[in-house]
Amino acid sequence: IAAMTLLIGPIFWIIHRYSYYYTFHDQINKYGLFQLQNCMWYCYGALLQQGGNILPMADSGRILIGFWWLFVMVVVTTYSGNLVAFLTFPQIEYPLNDLSQLLEKGKEDGITWGLLKDSVIESYFRDSEEPKFQEVGAHAQKHEEPGTDPNGELMQKIKYEDHVYIEFKSKLEMMMKEQYNITRQCDYALGSEEFFHERVALAFPKDSPWIEHFNIEIKRILQAGLTEKFKQDHWPSEDECSVSARGGTGTTAVVSVLDMQGSFYILFFGITVALLILLFELVMRKKVVSRDPSIIKPYTP
Q1: Does the pLDDT of residue 140 top 70, yes or no?
Q2: How close are the terminal C-alpha atoms of the chain, in Å?
């Protein structure tokens, strides 16, 4: 954006200065938009939505300025939206997001972690062949099923003793929603790493004739989007803690320069059209001069 702001001024000056319109009407002078610095200030003022007192008279210059205004509107609107989103939902990064960091912090800062006793996750860590998972499982504290009391042992441990609770993401989201409904405070956050995906299946006898029919119906449910509908109906709804609980990566998307590349294409298209019109004006000038070198120019007092 800064580069385009610096380039558009000289491009505008070249198109404006060499347009045959001003030669034909004998309007070339050393003032206004015929000076490079004025063209640059004009484009910079448009970026700040201040505009200018004068407009170019030639079609090539007007087309360029028109497309520059379109570019400015897209950029300013996008930047304003990003600024409001950042101030409303600031990007929050937590120092602990994956198991590798958990092990590192456990050694350096004494952070502890735990999981549900006799759960599938405990078996997963215990039976895993990866050393990292084995180490997490070996040093994990075993907890009983946590209740909803904010003053319960596990909740107090997480809030005040740098303790990490490892559980299925769906279960953690339910727990955080229950705690928020009770305390109305955002006390918990989720790590970004998902290392063990929960699998749910229906059990059938071997070679059962019902397997194919259920597979077809499950496929239809997925294709129809019913799983998302069920999740919207029965999953905890978004609240003020939803974004911060995920480290600021919630439903608020951040627009980058790559997402605004269409506005750059529009501006380049406008520059191209303006240059083509300028070329057309120069060609027409050459034809007119070659056909009648003694053409009388209009007098402008």
Answers
A1: yes
A2: 42
